[in-house]
Amino acid sequence: xxxxxxxxxxxxxxxLVGAQSSGTSGAKEGTATAGPRDPAEPPxxxxxxxxxxxxxxxxxxxxxxxxxxxxxxxxxxxCGTRLTLSSWTDPKRGIxxxxxxxxxxxxxxxxxSGGKLEVVVDKFESKSERTGPNPVHLENxxxxxxxxxxxxxxxxFIVVGDxxxxxxxxxxPEADAPGADDDASGTAVSVESARQxxxxxxxxxxxxxxxxxxGVLSGEEQGLLGAYRLLEWTxxxxxxxxxxxxxxxxGADSAPGGPHRVRVFSGNGEIEDCDSPARELARAIxxxxxxxxxxxxxxxxxxxxxGDHYPFYKAGLPAVRFTEPLEDYNxxxxxxxxxxxxEYGDFEKYLDFRFMGNVARDNAEVLRQLALAxxxxxxxxxxxxxxPDAKVSWAAEEDAxxxxxxILWRETTExxxxxxxxxxxxxxTALKGVSTDNHFFAVRSVGKNGARSIAVVSEPERRPxxxxxTAPKQ
Length: 474
Known about the structure:
Layout: H1 2-27, H2 66-77, H3 95-112, E1 117-126, E2 136-145, E3 155-162, H4 180-203, E4 211-217, H5 225-236, E5 240-247, E6 262-265, H6 277-289, E7 294-297, H7 310-314, E8 319-323, E9 337-339, E10 342-344, H8 353-372, E11 378-383, E12 390-395, E13 402-411, E14 418-423, E15 427-431, E16 439-447, E17 456-457, E18 459-460
Parallel strand pairs: 3-4, 3-5, 5-8, 6-7, 11-18
Antiparallel strand pairs: 1-2, 2-4, 6-8, 9-10, 11-12, 12-15, 13-14, 13-16, 16-17
Helix pairs in contact: 2-3, 2-4, 3-4, 4-8, 6-8
């Protein structure tokens, strides 16, 4: 009986599928697939603004000094360990040895820049459950390329790697911890970015409007201590953080078929369903460097892990993490050893400098373009609920170098923005025939040189429906 019922249901389902297929074929005769059946927004042709070209003078891949990056990593590995709890005074072993190599390299770059680059060693104390009961000594190294625009010089764009390393036991300062990939690779990317951009500034080919900070931090493995200190330091100096890019484990690309795309992690925030300053930075990075170079990961970090961008992200700032495509956990956070024929340890021989050079170029070009751009708009709002037109408004200070603003939109299920319209001045623009419900909206500033700020997503007007007094608050 059950077999008979099942057979009958199967025939009915087959008939329904056949009828639906027949109906689809009849409605779209001569086409392979049916197209969208939604009303057009707007119902008439939407604006087609002229899109300004991106800034000239892009950093080319051939200019990246892979030899210099390799030499710096070799020097850092030669320190034996760079655990934060190791010696800060021994010139041959410990984190102080690593700091000395970083400072020497940045001082040489500063000299080549004709004084454009300033090197600062920031000494401080901090503690966590990974330092023991008492505060410990730490040091960060910053190389600062000051902005040329009085209006924007206090906006700072930051790129960092961390110079500390760790063995299997994060509290053991005696064990070897070469840290070639984690994170001498990120240190090399930050330092090479400093070389690239200070060289451009010294040549006079570009004048960076905002300040750029190239950081090499300590204390990452002990609880992101250097990153928390950098966030505090920027406030002490009166800076507004426009961008923070953390490069951590960016030196290997061992899977066949490389080089592959570097992963860029960004958290979603709380403004809209998948928008935050961090997410807008990730989108800007992909747009500048290209989808062939950047793999956006819509997650704050790797699962169960953390990095130096986290304190900045939690502060509501645009902060992301660069990490290699496919990590090999035998070669990070491991005391060097061989067990059952498997070699553990974070050694230079596992690095891929072709891939690492790509990451350095990607970071430097993002910093170049963003530091040339006008300030992002402020107070970006979306109104127009229960009307035919979405209305986007924003504010901005006067800027003679700004060409105007791009109004961006995207489907709520789409990951990337498209330009809807262009406005020369701040104010309000009505998107005729576009529902507030079906899209997300944002605005970004555009310079006369074609450099764009990161986008600022519009914050919608909140109009909750009337509810019974006993209903939970929305």
